[in-house]
Amino acid sequence: MKTLLEIFIISLRLGLTSFGGPVAHLGYFREAYVHRRQWLSEKQYADLVALCQFLPGPASSQVGIGIGMARGGTVGGFVSFIGFTLPSVLLLMAVAVGFQQQGLIELGLVDGLKIVAVAVVAHALLGMGRNLAPDAKRASIAVLSFVAVLLAPAVWMQVAVILAAGLIGWGLYRNADLPKAESLPLKLSAKFSAVCLTLFFSLLALLPILRAATDSLHVQLADSFYRAGALVFGGGHVVLPLLEREVVPTGLLSESEFLAGYGAAQAVPGPLFTFASYLGMVIDGTAGAITATAAIFAPAFLLLLGVLPLWLKLQQAPAMRAAAAGVNAGVVGILAAALYDPVFTSAITASADLAFAALLFMLLMYWKQPAWLVVILGVLGGMLFYGG
């Protein structure tokens, strides 16, 4: 119970302070779980990030679930998810019943938080780069991955880069004496994982049939949001157009209501997938919010529980260790591209922005200040310098 409480408190703190989108979340996670508490090694963390980047669904949420599972089993994964997700769920439900996010934007809060995200991601990227691309070959894989994603920022390119980096890593390192893979301390039976995968595909196939056979609003919501969570690669921003097609043309809510919630979702911490909570709340109150939120995140749980045991076994094979060396370097490149666009391009629009980001980075990198303190300073700085 003590371990679960610890997982919840730390993940809740992250859920309250992790602004900036999925790539920033990965930076916050690394600082909290790898650097400060050493729950995972840099290599274990990178392997988990690589897997979650490859799976559909909210990558940062899946990484948080995986870390919780490594610390406290399957229940620990669920507790970690609740802590990280709950703040943004409640905030967006509040938006749906009248909370006005525009006031926060006018105060400069969002501007400051965007600049915090630049510092946090840059700090995480440097640390990961030193560990995962330590030689010329892996550094080259990282740079080429960065170039590919930067020039072709489509979601499919990220998946293609991970596959290509794995193949290159296998070619370069298959005969190298690489360190043995550091497996996550998970105890999941093959039978349980098979049940999770079966349930994942069964729901994907059966929910549309059930929707056609009934006029239940909650079945309709479950089908729409489950499909969105199961089939979308690339995180929250990619899922938004799909959700718009599911709820606006069908008359469940208006275009203006959708856009108002989208704007609010940018200004709250935690995963952008909790935009589903806002949509469900507008459509059918608290019950709708619960249905939509559970449905959009369920695929992330089922896929991770279904795939992780196989992934951990494959990691022990020398060929997979060689491929993983390339994949991890590729992930560094993908995160570097995300640091530039959208994190840097949306936050740094003047010299003063870059100066503020540099000061926050200095606090993280050299003065070893916790990320939550940097977030608070970013908020205060945003209100002071960017408030209307």
UniProtKB/TrEMBL annotation:
Keyword Nucleus attributed: no
Cellular component terms per the entry's GO annotation: plasma membrane
Main location: membrane
Coiled coil: none
An MF annotation (GO) of this entry: chromate transmembrane transporter activity
InterPro entries named in the record: Chr_Tranpt_l_chain, Chromate_transpt
Membrane topology qualifier: Multi-pass membrane protein
Keywords of this entry: Cell membrane, Membrane, Transmembrane, Transmembrane helix
Protein localization: Cell membrane
Transmembrane regions: 78-100, 112-129, 141-172, 192-213, 287-312, 319-340, 346-364, 371-387
Similarity section: Belongs to the chromate ion transporter (CHR) (TC 2.A.51) family.
Protein name per its UniProtKB record: Chromate transporter
